[in-house]
Design a protein that fits this description.
This is RNase H type-1 domain-containing protein. GO terms for molecular function: nucleic acid binding; RNA-DNA hybrid ribonuclease activity. The protein is mainly α. The protein has a domain of 43 residues. 50% of the residues lie in helices and 0% in strands. Helix 2 packs across helix 3. The chain is elongated and about 75 Å long.
Length: 86
């Protein structure tokens, strides 16, 4: 494996590197300077949406369990019930 100066001495490369570092650090462009396609919010990831939905269902199920008569009885026996692994 050997280093090859592929982008060395290419006009604008240093500026692009500088801009990339600023963006990675959280500094972003003014929305007016962005192309129209990038001014809109990014689409939601389907995987993330499912993750959030499942987490909400899990929390609601745990709340219902703790509010039930059986849940209150089991709470005295094992406070870890309901398990997060179901």
């Amino acid at each position: 494996l050997r280093w090859v100066p592929g982008h060395q001495d290419i006009a604008g490369n240093e500026q692009a590197d500088c801009e990339a570092k600023l963006a990675a650090a959280g500094d972003s462009s003014s929305i007016r300077l962005l192309p129209p396609a990038l001014r809109q919010p990014l689409p939601v990831s389907l995987a993330k949406a499912k993750q959030v939905y499942n987490k909400e269902l899990e929390q609601r199920a745990a709340e219902r369990w703790r509010a039930s008569a059986r849940g209150r009885k089991f709470q005295r026996v094992d406070p870890a019930i309901p398990s997060s692994r179901y």
